Amino acid sequence: MLYEIQTYGKDILRQKTEKIGNIDDSVREIVSNMFETMYAAEGIGLAAPQIGKSIRLFVIDLSPIDESEKKRVFINPEIYEYGKETEDIEEGCLSIPTVREIVTRPARIKIRYQTLDGQHVDEEVDDFLSRVIQHEYDHLERTLFVDHLSTLKRSLLKKTLNQISRGEIEVEASENYEL
Ligand code: NI
Known about the structure:
Blueprint: H1 25-40, E1 45-47, E2 57-61, E3 71-82, E4 86-92, E5 100-106, E6 109-114, E7 120-125, H2 127-140, H3 151-165
Antiparallel strand pairs: 1-2, 2-3, 3-6, 4-5, 6-7
Bound molecules: nickel (II) ion.
């Protein structure tokens, strides 16, 4: 089942997310539908608020750009350490169609989360996966990548963001691997 991707301006993207208790069939079904929705939009990351659910869950699949990668599910994630070194990388977001900007973020993070099997994992991550995790984690923290931009950059985007809020720009699959 495909979910409708919630776009910039929708309240759900700014709502507090709840921890997931039991990882039961309903959670497994949401995860399966999220992957389906993400692949249909040709995205490589998708967080639960983007499909209208205020729960602490996101999915990532970097295999289209790195064949050694596979599907990853992050349940109740917590980034508990950010490295000092930063990187500038261009980002896009399925919820903010047509907008792509350079965002500065820490290169390396440490994260704790649960897998779909309920296993607790503690990982140190760098490179592009670290970037994608930070973007998706932000969605759970009610933050969008445009929030990280300078006031000047944001003001230049204002017209486009308003158009997205009014539903004048729709989500379309793109070759840009949106998050
Ligand atoms: Ni996003």
